[in-house]
Amino acid sequence: MKSPRRLADSRVAAVLPAALIALAASGGLVALAGVSPLDAYRSIWSGGLGSTSALGTTLVMLLPLLFAALAFAVPFRAGLYNIGVEGQLYLGALSSAVVGLKLHAPTYVVLPVAVLAGMAAGMAWAVIPALLKVTRGVNEIVSSLFLNYVAIYFTNWLLAGPLEAPNIGVAQTSIIPDAAHFPVLVADTKITYALLLALVVVVLVQALFRTPFGFDLRIMGASGKVADYLGIRSGRATIVAFAISGAIGGLAGVCEVLGNQFFLSQDFSPGWGYTGIAVAVLGGGVAWGIALAAAFFGVIGAGALQMQFVNQLSPSFALVVQAVAVIVVLLFLEWRSRGARRAADRPEHASPAAPTEAVEA
Amino acid sequence: MTALLVDAIAAATPLIFVALGGLLAERAGVMSVSLEGYMLVGAFAAVAVSHTHGQWAGLLAAAVAGTTLALAHAYLCIGARLNQIVSGLALNLFALGITGFVNSLVFGEGRTGTQVPAFSALRIPGLADIPLIGPALFDQTLFTYAIFPLLAAIVIYLRRTRSGLALHAVGEHPAAADARGIPVNRVRYAATAVSGLLAGVGGAALSIGLVSSFVENMTQGRGYIALAAVVFAGWRPLLAVAACLLFGVADAAQVWANVLNVDVPFELLATAPYVVTVVALVILGRRGRHPAALGIPYVRGQR
């Protein structure tokens, strides 16, 4: 019987082969388009990894995904689904943009206030489905998904009216003043201190999973009944997990607006909240696995832009590679854990397969 | 008012196909987050094939494309026993990518899609002259007319046929169904395939019914809305159709508020169906019960 820890490691180890298989399989798609797969891979390399500026693009592209994936991962530990990260990142972006636009003060005041405002907005929005689940038994998948639309339309309404920049004719805010921007970390790139913030969150999430609270979440995910027997207050844990999740989800929007775009426009997110779920799964639900998976998504995303530029191929290619990678990883892990379960079922070690499932859930 | 109803039913039509498909799969115990993906590949296949072979071939292609993706979902959920929500979301990502990619190959990178042959409104003389509801019900595309027999068939199937009861048993208590000799996984495969077929047709109802072109991500979450309609309706077909109509009305009201320059901010109006659904779920609370075995793969001898 493998320890949960080692199984978690093997999940992360599965990311790389899955990524390679997905890339190889998607080569066929490129060939279909009449482009040599090797040329396409060369573009992905040069666009995603090959130079300082390529690395910069990759890191900027992966940030919102990384936050979104971490946000999803926290309640997912307990088998809970926060499908509402998209809405949380919209409201996070909105609040931080408003602070950045309206609060005129030096960076060391504006930036922290804007970041906290964004986290608070995301948190508040995420707590709603958790409360509805705990008090009324409303399925959190449906309620959190639906709140996305409410958040997005609400943001769009503000952007088309009260917050609309004058004399542009496009529904977006004015440019946010420099004081609220994340300072640049690496000169001549778009890499800002937002990247450091992301690394801190990765470490914090990993640490959270090792606290007693993190362990409670894992037990809840494995079996609600066991959690009840152990006296875990599942309701409270659900709300806390969603609050943390929402705060991190808010950061996805904050870092994009104050670290990359510097204004907020309608439909500013290409669905990071949803893609983040795929990243979280690819990363095995473990913080540093998620960082690795986000890096993969970032490289493919930035590489696909280069492919569009050099090989005239649609950047949608990236989505195909990413989706295939996720499915391959899931299949691989299921196949492995089935093997482990079969070994556990043999009479000489007739121990229940609970720990395996704890990690899976 | 009449025009609003016409638009509302037109907007609800694709949703209804997708929702009815999702309902069948979910009643059999297979989660259908991937409805969005089925619908999207259906919408694209319909346009791509209609472009060269006409709308009827397009419709067929949509059904085939939706069914194919659904079979992949069925394999991942039933055969490989993956997490059904996650694999469904991954398939949606795949559908978004593959349709965007192939679309740019077939039609080139364009903001507006190429116009292709599509189904136009077919006015039924006489009935369409009934005041108020006449045009809404009898001046629509074939898709809308097909809903009536489809809905009747599904209601009768679920309530009155042996196979429909088997579907129900498989979703509620697969072990008992298995003991009665019902092939649980085969029923689930079939239900999922049919859900893909219907959702694919729903995609066609959008791309070669409501409009006549494809743009990237044109379903824009309609698959999720259809799924929500199913949940909202407590997995009952008539209510699911009613829920889709509610979304259709909200959709049409938005457009009309915009056109008529009514002083209601249409973005806020657009949130209405979502808010209403969440409130309804709150009121229903724990009574809104889902099929007992929803999302749980069946393995004989395992509880």
Compact description:
The complex is a heterodimer of chains A (361) and B (303). Chain A is mainly α and 361 residues long.
Could you explain the architecture of this structure?
The complex is a heterodimer of chains A (about 350) and B (about 300). Helix content of chain A is about 75%, strand content about 0%. Chain A is an all-alpha fold. The longest helix of chain A has 30 residues, at about 105-135. Residues about 350-360 of chain A have low confidence and may be disordered. Chain B has a two-stranded antiparallel sheet with strand order 1-2. Chain B has helices at about 1-25, 35-55, 55-80, 85-105, 135-140, 140-160, 160-170, 175-180, 185-210, 220-230, 235-260, 265-270, 270-285; strands at about 120-125, 140. Chain B has about 300 residues and is mainly alpha-helical. Chain B is globular and about 60 Å long. Chain B is built from 13 helices and 2 strands. The interface of A and B includes residues 143, 154, 161, 326 and 335 of A.
List keywords for this structure.
heterodimer; A: 361 residues; mainly alpha; 14 helices; globular; disordered C terminus; B: 303 residues; two-stranded antiparallel ribbon; 13 helices; 2 strands; 71% helix
The SSE string of chain A, one letter per element, is HHHHHHHHHHHHHH
Question: Low-confidence segments of chain A, ≥5 residues, pLDDT <50?
Answer: 349-361
Write the element-wise H/E pattern of chain B from the N-terminal end onward.
Answer: HHHHEHEHHHHHHHH
Q: Span from first to last CA of chain B?
A: 54 Å
The level of helicity of chain B is over 70%
Quaternary status: heterodimer
The whole-number mean of residue pLDDT values of chain B reads 88
Instruction: Write down how many β-strands of chain A occur, each being a DSSP E stretch of 2 or more residues.
Output: 0
Number of strands of chain B: 2
Q: Please count the helical segments of chain A.
A: 14
Helix percent of chain A reads over 70%
Global structural class of chain A: mainly alpha
Biggest sheet of chain A, in brief? Answer: none
Mean pLDDT of chain A: 87
